[in-house]
């Protein structure tokens, strides 16, 4: 029997997949839809103290597609998503309603600009019945990290301590990927008493319309993420897992069940998802849960904790551990169509394009593997020599 349940920041979740704070988590009606599709928990769209951030411009979403031909096809989800439209009292009402009407953990999120705001909003969330609270100190276009002008790391730690002195429910701190030393800050908020850290919020980015020579959409900076974002988060989570006792929630780039598996192997207790749900619909939650269960069944795991952190416990090689022998070289298969993609890219000039199909000059081939990666029909194999 496959058990997907996990304990995160003292909360019991039926699956490690969490809906990240965003427009899809603003109202009880939207949250109920996510619950019906099997989400483990929900982080509500952030309540901001800065009132101007409660009104979002339109349009505010842009899918930036990147296509270089062949296998190169990815995208960035660029957005200027703003805070919840509600003030603190109305937001607290929605928290209370969600907690009462849904059976999964509902975690409000707050972002403030004054000490009084942090304390008052946190107390309101606890009074509303929230089982935990996420601190959004990392919004890519409106937070401690974005505003700067101070010692960002010290301010995040100070705000965490401020809130922890005000409430008794578990506090989770959502960190930014733009911090100089994210692991150091994660350790500091753990020492302060936080029960969880989220690695990470979105990056702050800028895209420019070269025809009108100005930034796209609203005309300023925006958050950006996408499938590519997973690799940076995996790097830090894999390093943080052996050193932290606090629970880690992965966030950024998870669009498939395989991504969820990777994050857990790196050490994440939960995986937060937003872009995949926004661009593929809430059915992607079912796909992720089913895919995770299928992978666990194939591997012989009955519980998520049986493989959590497996890759981060000595499986990642250091500089001196990497095998540097050139023991593989490329081989072109008969199905090669001589399309011409690989040959110009080989800096070793090891691809003979005078024949059909092409062939690899074995004495020259370095074994780097680039030709195999760019071939659109997988007509190149790397074989041991």
What does it look like?
- This protein has 385 residues and is an alpha/beta fold.
- It has 2 domains: 6-306, Aldolase class I (TIM Barrel), CATH 3.20.20; 328-384, 2-Layer Sandwich (Alpha-Beta Plaits), CATH 3.30.70.20.
- The protein is 29% helix and 22% strand.
- It has 11 helices and 22 strands.
- A 10-stranded parallel β-sheet has the order 5-9-10-11-12-17-18-3-4-8.
- Helix 7 (230-240) runs parallel beside helix 8 (257-266) and helix 8 (257-266) packs across helix 10 (283-299).
- The longest helix is centred in the C-terminal third of the chain and has 17 residues, at 283-299.
- The chain is globular and about 75 Å long.
- It starts with 5 loop residues before the first strand and ends with a strand.
Task: Give the helix/strand layout.
Blueprint: E1 6-8, E2 11-13, E3 17-19, H1 28-36, E4 41-43, E5 47-48, E6 61-69, E7 72-79, H2 88-101, E8 106-107, E9 109-111, H3 115-127, E10 133-136, H4 144-147, H5 152-164, E11 171-175, H6 182-192, E12 196-199, E13 203-205, E14 208-209, E15 214-215, E16 222-225, H7 230-240, E17 247-251, H8 257-266, E18 270-273, H9 275-280, H10 283-299, E19 328-332, E20 351-352, E21 359-360, H11 370-374, E22 380-384
Helix pairs in contact: 2-3, 5-6, 7-8, 8-10
């Amino acid at each position: 029997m496959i058990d997907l349940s996990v304990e995160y920041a003292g909360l019991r979740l039926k699956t490690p997949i969490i809906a990240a704070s965003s427009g899809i988590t603003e109202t009880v009606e939207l949250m109920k839809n996510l619950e019906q599709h099997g989400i483990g928990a929900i982080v509500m769209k952030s309540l901001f103290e800065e009132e101007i951030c409660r009104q979002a411009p339109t349009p505010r979403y842009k899918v930036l597609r990147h296509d270089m031909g062949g296998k190169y096809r990815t995208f960035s989800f660029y957005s200027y998503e703003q805070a919840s439209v509600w003030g603190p009292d109305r937001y607290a009402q929605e928290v209370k309603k969600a907690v009462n009407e849904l059976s999964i953990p509902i975690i409000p999120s707050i972002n403030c600009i004054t000490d009084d705001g942090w304390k008052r909003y946190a107390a309101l969330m606890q009074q509303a019945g929230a089982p935990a609270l996420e601190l959004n100190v990392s919004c890519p276009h409106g937070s401690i990290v974005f505003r700067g002008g101070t010692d960002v790391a010290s301010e995040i730690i100070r705000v965490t301590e401020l809130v922890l002195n005000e409430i008794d429910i578990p506090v989770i701190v959502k960190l930014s990927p733009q911090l100089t030393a994210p692991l150091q800050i994660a350790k500091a908020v753990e020492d302060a008493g936080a029960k969880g850290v989220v690695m990470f919020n979105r990056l702050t980015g800028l895209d420019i319309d070269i025809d009108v020579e100005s930034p796209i959409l609203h005309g300023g900076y925006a958050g950006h993420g996408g499938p590519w974002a997973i690799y940076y988060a995996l790097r830090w989570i894999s390093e943080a897992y052996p050193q932290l006792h606090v629970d880690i929630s992965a966030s950024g780039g998870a669009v498939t069940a395989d991504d969820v598996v990777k994050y857990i192997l790196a050490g994440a207790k939960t995986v937060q998802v937003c872009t995949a749900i926004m661009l593929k619909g809430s059915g992607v939650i079912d796909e992720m849960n089913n895919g995770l269960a299928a992978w666990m069944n194939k591997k012989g795991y009955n519980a998520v904790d049986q493989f959590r952190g497996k890759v981060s416990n000595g499986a990642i090689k250091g500089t001196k551990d990497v095998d540097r022998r050139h023991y593989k070289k490329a081989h072109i298969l008969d199905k090669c169509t001589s399309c011409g993609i690989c040959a110009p890219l080989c800096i070793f000039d090891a691809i003979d394009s005078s024949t059909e199909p092409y062939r690899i000059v074995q004495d020259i081939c370095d074994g780097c593997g680039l030709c195999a990666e760019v071939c659109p029909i997988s007509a190149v194999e790397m074989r041991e020599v």
